[in-house]
Design goal:
Blueprint: E1 17-18, H1 20-29, H2 31-41, H3 48-60, E2 68-69, H4 84-100, E3 125-129, H5 134-144, H6 148-158, H7 164-173, H8 179-186, H9 193-196, E4 206-210, H10 213-237, H11 258-263, H12 276-279, H13 298-309, E5 316-319, E6 333-340, E7 343-349, E8 353-360, E9 368-373, E10 384-390, E11 393-398, E12 402-409, E13 418-419, E14 431-432, E15 445-451, E16 454-459, E17 467-471, E18 478-479, H14 483-489, E19 504-516, E20 523-533, E21 540-546, E22 554-560, E23 573-579, E24 585-591, E25 595-602, E26 606-609, E27 612-617, E28 623-629, E29 634-636
Parallel strand pairs: 5-9, 17-19
Antiparallel strand pairs: 1-2, 3-4, 6-7, 7-8, 8-9, 10-11, 11-14, 12-13, 12-15, 15-16, 16-17, 17-18, 19-20, 20-21, 21-22, 23-24, 24-27, 25-26, 25-28, 28-29
Helix pairs in contact: 1-4, 2-3, 2-4, 6-7, 6-8
Length: 639
């Protein structure tokens, strides 16, 4: 089969204008699908490890440097239809993936996509997707026999569900010289759309294996010898005098420190009595008792404390953003030590952080140490900690005052919660974690805890502590309990994926406006979701728009480090371009209840008294929103 060249070609300028923020929002929301597309289009000759890293690199480099035009090529799947930001980043990923398959030529500089990616990089490990069955293997072999443009045509037709005419447009925009030939060649492979969504082709769900260990050992020896030579030269250069500089009043590095020694003594771990919480006015981790079947295993506890103080090179260490990972300042409190699934797990608390140490039951190789910041946690925020993750499921250790644990699909507000069960030590049954799901969001399972204070919803976002979900006005949020609160959250559950692994403490969903649609098809809901973090900084705000009957809300605007929708500034203004059932386009904008007027400038002009604005416009138009509050203050539109 003759390969087809991919000529560099600028994106068509006739499409709607896309700015960096809009493209970033589309990339983050559809990142797993875009990486899968890149992985499938890249040539299999690169090898699975390099294909994985290159697919992630190409996707992460797909953002424009400034405002640019997007190709007018539709995205047919739910949640992407008509999104010029998604169309732009998809075209960039497609173009660079095709370029990566081109042969290197003499007397010509290679393109960046043809070289091994600088980032991301994983040292010492080979990464590859999970193996599929015989059907997936056969499809991969058939795709490897196709040219790059033909693979791209097959993937656009099967994964993106584009019609042949739109596939031609996409290939032409990506620089393929003969899109018709690519379509013809791709038709030689039987369409198997379901297989394209299998784990075999998912570069976001990976296995890891070591690289050549003997070669790594040789390289390490050479690096150590070089480091020793540098150290000797540095010592000679630093003499005479104070060497690298005096340490002032600090003790010598070899001196014994009583507090540091006590922190490593398992006999001095703080252990709270099982009934202490019943008479305490506090509802935080300080009154959690020590639980588990291994609380008396001094050898295990000593290993956990020693690894916390000085983790070895083989220990996998992780920490939520803003969480220090240093040794404890003194003897920490023991929360749990026991067998969980196929691991031994120890949970420790030092007043600021929770540390989780885990090791396999058959040894200490592959031990892991995780940190999460929990300072100020009380009530619902101190009701659960992740004990273990296995096969996409998560188990929690719950507070001693929790009476019941259940699983609930947040996308299905009317469905009943399923009892997870609680062991005598407060350990839940396994719950399918949404933090590890990839591809289209079809469910979002959350943890529903019932305790002496009521019912709380907690969502796993890939960290030690689940995020507390609330609803209502930012100055007085309340628990997500009852049909109305669940209905408010349901269309926006999948937006929680945008704040995974961000050190999130709580997420509040607030319906700040309801707007009648211009075509009289009902009223749309405006909801602001705000994710606050344990470290205080870096909160993320999403203004979302939900039309009647739609399964999901659409992100209209977003911001980071903004006071909008928060307790300090419970105000928000956002707008969205909306297409009516008759094909007419409108700028719809809404502000919070105390917004006295709204005006639009730039590519769209209009004004209205009150907190709602609807202006007839055209597709792709851009506008700057400005609001005036009842007290006279101005309010900028969230972007």
């Amino acid at each position: 089969m003759q390969s087809q060249d991919v000529a560099p070609r600028p994106a068509p300028a006739s499409g709607p204008v896309v700015d960096v923020e809009q493209a970033e929002a589309a990339l983050v929301e559809h990142y797993p699908r875009l990486v899968r597309l890149a992985y499938l289009v890249l040539p299999p000759s690169l090898g699975r490890n390099r294909r994985v890293l290159t697919a992630h690199a190409l996707t992460q480099r797909a953002l424009p440097r400034g405002r640019t035009s997007a190709a007018v090529i539709p995205a047919q799947s739910t949640g992407r239809d008509g999104d010029p930001g998604y169309a732009f980043v998809r075209l960039q990923v497609l173009r660079t993936a095709l370029e990566a398959g081109l042969p290197l030529r003499r007397r010509a500089w290679p393109k960046r996509s043809q070289l091994p990616p600088l980032l991301p990089q994983v040292w010492g490990l080979r990464l590859f997707p999970r193996s599929g069955g015989a059907d997936e293997l056969a499809l991969d072999q058939r795709l490897s026999a196709l040219s790059g443009p033909a693979r791209a045509a097959y993937v656009l037709r099967g994964l993106e569900q584009l019609a042949d005419a739109d596939v031609r447009k996409a290939l032409d925009a990506a620089g393929v010289e003969d899109p018709e030939a690519a379509l013809t060649e791709s038709a030689e492979v039987t369409p198997q759309d379901d297989l394209l969504l299998s784990p075999e082709f998912d570069p976001c769900s990976l296995h890891a294996r070591p690289t050549d260990l003997m070669r790594r050992r040789q390289h390490l020896k050479a690096a150590l010898a070089a480091a020793a030579a540098v150290a000797v030269c540095g010592a000679l250069l630093g003499l005479p005098g104070d060497g690298w500089g005096p340490d002032g009043a600090a003790a010598p590095s070899y001196a014994q420190n009583p507090a540091a020694e006590a922190a490593l003594d398992p006999g001095k771990l703080a252990k709270v009595a099982a009934t202490a919480w019943q008479s305490s006015a506090r509802t935080d981790f300080s009154v959690w008792p020590a639980r588990g079947n291994l609380t008396g295993d001094r050898a295990l506890l000593r290993r956990a404390l020693a690894v916390w103080a000085r983790p070895g090179e083989s220990v996998q260490v992780s920490a939520t953003p803003g969480t220090p990972s240093g040794a404890p300042p003194g003897p920490p409190q023991l929360l749990y030590a026991g067998d969980v699934d196929q691991a031994r797990v120890v949970l420790l608390y030092d007043g600021l952080r929770i540390a989780r140490y885990a090791e396999p039951k058959d040894g200490t190789s592959g031990a892991a140490l995780d940190f999460a910041r929990v300072d100020g946690a009380t009530g619902a925020e101190a009701t659960a900690v992740v004990l273990d993750r296995v096969d996409g499921n998560v188990r929690y250790l719950t507070a001693p005052w929790v009476r019941k644990a259940a699983a609930r699909d947040l996308l299905k507000a009317s469905s009943a919660a399923l009892d997870l069960g609680l062991s005598a030590d407060g350990v839940t049954g396994p719950l399918a974690s949404p933090a590890q799901q990839t591809g289209d969001c079809r469910s979002w399972r959350v943890l529903q805890l019932t305790d002496t204070a009521g019912t709380h919803l907690m969502s796993d976002l890939g960290e030690l502590t689940p995020a507390h979900l609330t609803t209502g006005r930012p100055t007085a949020p309340h628990e997500v309990s009852g049909a109305q609160a669940l209905e408010t959250w349901s269309p926006f559950a999948c937006s929680l994926a945008a704040v995974r692994s961000g050190g999130v403490r709580s997420v509040n969903a607030w319906q700040f406006a309801q707007q009648p649609l211009p075509d009289a098809s009902g009223a749309a809901a405006w909801v602001c979701t705000r994710a606050d973090t344990w470290r205080g900084g870096g909160p993320r705000v999403l203004a979302q728009f939900h039309t009647p009957g739609g399964p999901y809300g659409a992100v209209a605007a977003k911001a980071e480090n903004s006071p909008a929708c928060g307790s300090r500034d419970p105000h928000v203004l956002a707008g969205v371009l909306w297409k009516s059932g008759t094909g007419a386009w409108y700028l719809l904008a809404a502000g919070s209840k105390d917004t006295a007027s709204i005006s639009a400038a730039g590519g769209i002009h209009g004004a209205a008294q009150g907190s709602l604005l609807a202006v007839r416009t055209k597709q792709g138009a851009q506008a700057t929103l400005k609001g005036t509050l009842a007290d006279g203050r101005t309010l900028a539109g969230l972007r």
